[in-house]
From TrEMBL:
Single GO molecular function: serine-type endopeptidase activity
Domain (Peptidase S9 prolyl oligopeptidase catalytic): residue spans on this chain: 519-720
Name recorded for this polypeptide: Prolyl oligopeptidase
InterPro entries: AB_hydrolase_fold, Pept_S9A_N, Peptidase_S9_cat, Peptidase_S9A, Prolyl_oligopep/macrocyclase
Organism, as annotated: Promicromonospora iranensis
Region annotated Disordered, chain positions: 1-26
Length: 722
């Protein structure tokens, strides 16, 4: 029996449908995140969800997922800091986590000896706070300190209460393994969105909430200051202040010996940034010089080199550099007025630049070709050559991985080493961590250091990449995983989950998931992932094709993949489910309201749904470059993909599960709450679950993550396997 609304919740009559955006919002009261009336509604819906989904299947799924998350056999990824290799670890005994370290020799063994640096569970119990790890930044000692054998000791640790984006920063001593008290001059930043970054052992840049007027409309810092140890934060020196329309202001220092530079970063909006070279910071002679590249470009520095990654075409003199290209120039020459640039990468119709990684002497390009990784090692002219002649950059290939595997590369120590970490993973291939040296005459065979275990039986399963055509003829790739006879369509239709995102130039690549394997594939389900426009699979053009008034293309692409799965005999609409989170939650909301006949069940996770209000809720204003401004005439196209306003009470919809988190301070939980309430008022089949902790990730620890996963998979299997 379902749990009914109590009298504490407002009695809301079903509004005229579709919802009138110019009229009062009948469910606005659910935007009161911590309001008792809203939370009473949340608790009631959670209780209904628990009753509807609970049972042996739920319990077994939760157990199987928790076993994966808590496994002692998980692969411990590490970061090199001096002579130590640091790792953050969570398991059944340490649900908040351990920050720990070891040596390379010990890490190479099957059972490394770990030294605990910080125990978050003990800290949370001691301080009565549900701390969630947000990372740490360790100051690199000066060459003089390294020569004297001084250890790395200065760290800035970021901790979030409950998993929210807003967090605190506290200085930590890696020698004593204790926080440095504020009373002893330790740097401490109160909870807000922002951060600290090291200048030197006694100075940091601080960008945070300094009080009224110091945060942008998106809820991020508008000011950055230089803060000296032992002085009150109120006395920190202003370095830069953005306008009240900017998105995010910050600053950083490069600590590479001989190339120390201070940079101020001004995010005007998504995809528009300014970077300034700062000299004499904090003095009357302070100077900020803008690096003169297009605002839509990303600029990066490594030793004497400046890299520019273009999102748009750049006409410079008689030359036009294409969007998606990577350019390089000696930084000092560029700042002195030279515009002699070398093209290191230019996209083709099937290729895009997925990432770049510098080592001490080399640059590794990670290229996607039809959503498959290729690695190239580029070597610049000798130090001090001062030339960017293209013929002086040598190129070789780095052969790792395999067909339909994702390959990631990261520098082990960008200052002193040419070693890189190489991580490979695939839908049926557990992750492997290897280490190799790039730039050698003959490529060394990567040393495999760690391999993740298999969490499900992959024998008989297969991965295929398929392509289909969208409404406008665009070729759209997708991956499909499952039993060989099912991904071929020979065995007939099967319960299938189609996953997608399609936004913010984010490419979705193959990756191993014990959770998907145990909860879905092992049951005989098929798993598919769509690489739709709005993402970054084919570079900035693929992303820009679905911005603002063209958002419908992302949804048309996804619908085309759904139809293709049916056409290939893999599934039928009644057995096809889809899931999306965050921007993917907006995708899911549009599949629900615009393409309900294609699906048998839909999961809408931490979503945007009310596109009339989104820019006024939490970080929403920062996404107007992606979606548009609903307070202008852009609402004309925004309303065409605002699920909250597209819902029609007279239309049939597939069963839907909404999930969100009370602590999500990025995408407001009001989106999911209001849409669920609207559909419930119309008598639709709605399941709702809101985690009280968890932030935008939805869960603050493994127990919560397992419960959330069991909710998702049980809902899908119940709806699609009947």
């Amino acid at each position: 029996m379902s749990v009914e609304h109590t009298q504490t919740a407002p009695r809301t009559a079903l509004p005229d449908t579709p919802l009138d955006p110019s009229g009062p919002d009948p469910f606005a009261w659910l935007e009161d995140v911590d309001g008792e009336t809203a939370l009473t509604w949340v608790r009631e819906r959670n209780a209904h969800s628990a009753e509807a989904l609970g049972g042996p299947a739920f319990t077994e799924t939760e157990r199987a997922v928790r076993e994966v998350l808590d496994s002692d056999d998980k692969m411990p990824h590490v970061s090199k800091v001096g002579e130590h290799y640091y790792n953050f670890w969570q398991d059944a005994e340490h649900e908040r986590g351990l920050w720990r370290r070891t040596t390379l020799d010990s890490y190479r063994t099957d059972d490394p000896e770990w030294e605990i640096v910080l125990d978050l569970d003990a800290l949370a119990e001691q301080e009565g706070e549900s701390w969630v790890w947000h990372g740490a930044s360790v100051l690199r000692p000066t060459p003089e300190q390294l020569a004297a054998g001084e250890p790395r000791r200065h760290a800035l640790v970021d901790l979030s209460p409950g998993g929210s984006d807003s967090d605190v920063t506290r200085e930590f001593d890696l020698v004593t393994k204790q926080f440095v008290p504020e009373s002893d001059g330790g740097f401490v930043r109160a909870q807000a969105k922002g951060g600290l970054s090291w200048v030197d052992a006694d100075t940091v840049y601080v960008f945070t909430d300094f009080g009224e007027g110091t945060m942008t409309p998106s809820g991020y810092p508008r000011q950055v200051k230089r803060w000296r140890r032992g002085t009150p934060l109120a006395e920190a020196t202003l370095v830069y202040e953005g306008t009240d329309q900017d998105m995010y202001i910050s600053a950083s220092r490069s600590h590479t010996p001989g190339f120390e530079r201070d940079l101020v970063h001004r995010a005007l909006r998504f995809y528009a940034n300014e970077t300034y070279l700062a000299t004499n910071v904090g003095t009357p002679d302070q100077t900020l010089t803008k690096i003169d590249v297009p605002d839509s470009a990303n600029v990066g520095l490594h030793r004497e080199w400046m890299m520019v990654r273009l999102r748009d075409d750049w006409a410079l003199g008689d030359t036009t550099y294409r969007a998606g290209s990577l350019l390089v120039a000696p930084f000092d020459d560029f700042m002195a007025g030279s515009r002699d640039l070398t093209v290191l990468f230019e996209p083709t119709p099937t290729t895009s630049l997925a990432g770049i990684t510098w080592t001490r002497h080399h640059l590794v390009l990670n290229v996607l070709d039809d959503v498959k990784n290729l690695l190239h090692v580029l070597t610049p002219p000798a130090d001090g050559a001062g030339s960017t002649g293209e013929q002086e950059w040598t190129r070789s290939d780095l052969s790792v991985g395999g067909e339909l595997l994702t390959v990631g590369v990261g520098a082990v120590d960008v200052v002193d080493s040419d070693d890189v970490w190489v991580v490979t993973t695939g839908y049926l291939t557990p992750s492997t961590l290897a280490r190799t040296t790039v730039g050698t005459r003959e490529q060394a065979t990567p040393e495999v250091l760690k391999s993740a275990p298999s969490y499900f039986e992959a024998a008989g399963l297969e991965v295929r990449q398929q392509f289909t055509e969208s409404d406008d003829g665009t070729r759209v790739p997708y991956f499909v995983v499952g039993r060989a006879d099912r991904v071929s369509g020979e065995a007939g239709p099967a319960p299938t989950l189609l996953w997608g995102y399609g936004g913010f130039e984010h490419a979705i690549l193959p990756g191993y998931s014990g959770t998907v394997g145990r909860s879905w594939l092992a049951r005989g389900g098929v798993y598919a992932v769509a690489n739709i426009r709005g993402g970054g699979e084919y570079g900035p053009a693929w992303h820009q094709a679905a911005l603002k008034e063209n958002r419908h293309r992302a949804y048309e692409d996804f619908a085309a993949v759904a139809r293709d799965l049916v056409a290939r005999g893999i599934t039928v609409p009644a057995q096809l489910g889809m899931e999306g989170r965050s921007n993917g939650g907006l995708l899911a909301g549009n599949m629900l309201t615009q393409y309900p006949d294609l699906f048998g069940a839909i999961i809408v996770g931490v979503p945007l749904l009310d596109m009339k209000r989104y820019s006024h809720l939490l970080a929403g204003a920062s996404w107007m470059a992606e979606y548009g401004d609903p307070d202008t005439d852009e609402w004309e196209f925004l309303q065409r993909f605002s699920p909250y306003h597209l819902f029609d009470a007279g239309r049939e919809y597939p069963p839907v599960l909404f999930t969100t988190s009370t602590k999500d301070d990025r995408v407001h939980p009001g989106h999911a709450r209001k849409m669920a309430a609207l559909m419930l008022a119309a008598g639709k089949d709605v399941t709702y679950y809101e985690n009280i902790e968890g932030g935008h990730g939805g869960a603050a620890n493994n127990a919560q993550a397992a419960h959330m996963a069991a909710t998702h998979w049980t809902f899908l299997w119940n709806r699609l396997s009947a």
